[in-house]
């Protein structure tokens, strides 16, 4: 695999770790009332949108009410999953010591049980980011998204798999912690697998009972139109979450790594692996909010437990660090990242690696004079 880090010395890695540790400490020391007010405000807005959507859908047999209610409910679900649930369960707001907004107590509006998600995502993915064979998020076990992954004939229809995964993304996430590869190989713990399946089943029953039974029943004779509205809102939320997450992990020349990379990996090397294995999406403040600030995927991978409202603030400094050490800072518009990601999914559905790099996210590495580390 081509490396973009051959020019870095051990002293560079140490300096990178020192700078990023200092940046993190600066933000942690500055957390306070304005940050707490931010998350409380977002939760109020999200709950207000959901209440409004449920009320409008009581008249869901009328097309304008169905459209308005469905769109509002989809926005509410996106906010809950992306900016609130994902980030609360990362521990970004644990510093407030509020038991209602804490990683140990939050259960999100999603069929994936919070505890299983926190293991597969917070621990496995964020520890082993883009390590082939360790990070199950590389292709989610069904997609070949890099030439380093072994090709199999089952990859040929993967564009279809991906489209289905997008629509039903929450179910794919729910099954993620089961480690299907171990089940296929017979190396899983059967009792542990059954316990996880029971937890998933309970969560699905809870979500279906709410969205596909309780609220449709409240709308009386408009049961079917309300049910369809709820299904559509969930599908829209799933497609949006899938798109944002894939655009943060798979576009352009995002790098993957062999497991040997972990041997003796230093803090600086871990930071650089996060930089090389992530991509940002450009946009305005409302767009960043609706992505859960995962449009700042680079900053999120560097500092997964820092409050998401701070990512836009630190992004210019992270980018400057990349320029200082001649490292790529992958970023681009949503359309560019979506196109690049889907090109990979179609290309690597076919056998054989490609020697040339995929189209890079912009801006690409610019030649700079690399400083000598202190």
Automatic annotation (TrEMBL):
Family annotation (CDD domains): Delta6-FADS-like
Pfam families: FA_desaturase
Annotated region described as Disordered, given as residue ranges: 352-374
InterPro entries for this protein: FA_desaturase_dom, Fatty_acid_desaturase
Domain Fatty acid desaturase: 65-331
Name the UniProt record assigns to this protein: Fatty acid desaturase family protein
Organism listed in the record: Actinomadura fibrosa
């Amino acid at each position: 695999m081509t490396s973009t880090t051959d020019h870095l010395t051990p002293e560079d890695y140490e300096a990178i770790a020192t700078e990023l540790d200092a940046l993190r400490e600066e933000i942690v020391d500055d957390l306070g009332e304005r940050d707490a007010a931010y998350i409380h405000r977002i939760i109020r807005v999200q709950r207000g949108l959901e209440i409004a959507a449920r009320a409008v859908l009581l008249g869901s047999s009328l097309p304008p009410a169905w459209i308005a209610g469905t769109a509002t409910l989809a926005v509410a679900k996106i906010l809950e999953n992306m900016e609130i649930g994902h980030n609360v369960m990362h521990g970004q707001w644990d510093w407030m010591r509020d038991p209602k907004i804490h990683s140990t107590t939050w259960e999100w509006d999603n069929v994936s049980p919070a505890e299983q998600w926190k293991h597969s995502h917070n621990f496995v993915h964020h520890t082993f980011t883009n390590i082939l064979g360790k990070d199950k998020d590389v292709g989610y076990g069904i997609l070949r998204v890099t030439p380093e992954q072994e090709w199999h004939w089952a990859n040929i229809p993967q564009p279809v798999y991906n489209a289905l995964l997008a629509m039903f993304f929450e179910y794919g996430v729910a099954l993620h912690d089961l480690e299907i590869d171990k089940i296929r190989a017979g190396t899983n713990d059967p009792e542990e697998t059954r316990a996880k399946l029971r937890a998933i089943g309970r969560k699905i029953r809870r979500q279906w009972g709410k969205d596909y039974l309780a609220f449709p029943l409240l709308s009386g004779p408009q049961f079917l139109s309300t049910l369809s509205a709820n299904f559509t809102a969930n599908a829209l939320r799933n497609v949006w979450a899938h798109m944002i997450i894939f655009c943060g992990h798979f576009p352009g020349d995002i790098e993957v790594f062999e497991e040997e990379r972990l041997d003796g990996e230093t803090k600086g090397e871990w930071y650089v692996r996060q930089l090389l294995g992530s991509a940002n999406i450009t946009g305005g403040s409302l767009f960043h909010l609706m992505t859960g600030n995962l449009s700042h995927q680079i900053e999120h991978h560097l500092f997964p437990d820092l409050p998401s409202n701070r990512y836009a603030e630190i992004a210019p400094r992270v980018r400057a660090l990349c320029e200082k050490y001649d490292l790529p800072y992958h970023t681009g518009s949503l359309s560019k990242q979506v196109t690049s990601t889907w090109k990979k999914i179609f290309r690597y559905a076919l056998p054989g690696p490609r020697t040339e790099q995929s189209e890079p996210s912009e801006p690409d590495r610019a030649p700079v004079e690399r400083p000598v580390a202190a």
